[in-house]
Write a structure and sequence with these properties.
Helix content is 36%, strand content 13%. The protein has 346 residues and is of the alpha/beta class. The radius of gyration is 19 Å and the shape is globular. This is Type I phosphodiesterase / nucleotide pyrophosphatase.
């Protein structure tokens, strides 16, 4: 974290501004608990590594097969509880809004209780709280309130949003633009010495190649295979340590897919964009179809159920609360997806 020194007079102005900002950004519902003020359950001794493979169209897994993506197959199909038919967010199938849903458990649209992050670059300097118009908690604040530690490892500069929004709850923030190997190495180094209770990992190569050459092109598929190898090194790091092997769970998903033959993923009503994988693998998790062990979630087939559908499909926004459930911590206050923490993972 960067520290700043201010002159005494300026400091007084800063303090006053902070007080006013806190007043203006206070929760609109005074009865809603805020994790910074209310103690959550004490965190257990598990570790969660949430991995988002940006732009991962599940078609790539079928195209490359087990030989080309052995580690993704391990997580989703062969050893973990997974599905290749989860759903991205309803409002937008783009990167930053969907990742913000992953860490807050909220939908996107602020007027419907969402987080309000609709931009997708690093030129906007607002916080999540400013986008929503009130306080917004996250998986980071909940883990911190329960006595745990957090870390972010990302390959796009726009992910500074997380530390900017929850500066006291993101203990480590590694941003290496388009350097997927460096990001994974940083995670692995920390796993070997002081693993965070919750680590969020963003791998962006498939999205980058999809935009440059097109989804499902040879270069896009090679990017997916490369990410599979990097994920394999994370798995190997976990399995090489007796303590990590018995305590670590990986939660895997994506923010969106991409339409084969195009360089875009903005068509929120196109299945190629809104279908994503979701898997849970690791200590205490058995192989299962995620829908089969969650009959209160409905496999959506080719459809795109809205937020009022009952039952709901599995969504990428469930990352926050299923991770907290694994860690023995209460759900994110004000969240929607898996707010009851009833997504079965074992």
């Amino acid at each position: 974290m960067t520290s700043l020194r201010v002159r005494p007079v300026l400091a007084a102005v800063v303090v006053l501004a902070a007080v006013l900002a806190g007043f203006l950004l206070a929760p609109t519902d005074p009865t809603r608990p805020v994790s910074a003020d209310v103690a959550a359950r004490t965190i257990n001794d598990k570790h969660v590594i949430a991995i988002s493979v940006d732009g991962l169209n599940p078609r790539a897994l079928k195209k490359l097969g087990r030989a080309g993506t052995p580690n993704l197959h391990r997580l989703i199909k062969d050893e973990g509880a997974g599905t290749v038919n989860a759903r991205a967010q309803l409002e937008l199938t783009i990167t930053l809004p969907n990742h913000t849903s992953m860490v807050t458990g909220r939908r996107i649209k602020a007027g419907k209780g969402g987080h309000g992050v609709t931009w997708n670059d690093d030129t906007v300097t607002k916080t999540v709280q400013q986008a929503a118009g009130h306080d917004v908690d996250s998986v980071f604040t909940q883990v911190h309130a329960a006595g745990g530690t957090t870390a972010v490892y990302a390959t796009k500069s726009k992910f500074w949003l997380f530390e900017r929004s929850w500066p006291k709850a993101v203990d480590k923030n590694v941003i290496q633009v388009e350097k997927n190997g460096a990001v994974v190495k940083a995670l692995r180094d920390d796993l070997a010495t002081s693993p965070a209770s919750f680590s969020f990992v963003h791998l962006g190569k498939p999205d980058q190649m999809g935009h440059k050459f097109g989804w499902m092109t040879p270069k896009y598929l090679r990017a997916v295979a490369k990410m599979d190898k990097l994920i394999g090194t994370i798995i190997a790091q976990v399995e090489s340590s007796p303590s990590l092997r018995t305590s670590t769970v990986i939660v895997l998903t994506s923010d969106h897919g991409g339409v084969p033959g195009t360089k875009n993923h903005v068509w929120k009503k196109n299945r190629e964009d809104y279908r994503v994988p979701f898997a849970i693998w690791g200590a205490g998790v058995d192989r299962a179809d995620l829908y089969a062990i969650n009959p209160h979630r409905a496999a959506p087939g080719r459809s795109r159920p809205n937020a009022k559908a009952d039952p709901q499909p599995i969504r990428n926004g469930e990352v926050a609360n299923v991770s907290l459930d694994i860690l023995g911590v209460d759900a994110v206050p004000g969240s929607l997806w898996d707010a009851a923490q009833d997504l079965a993972w074992k």
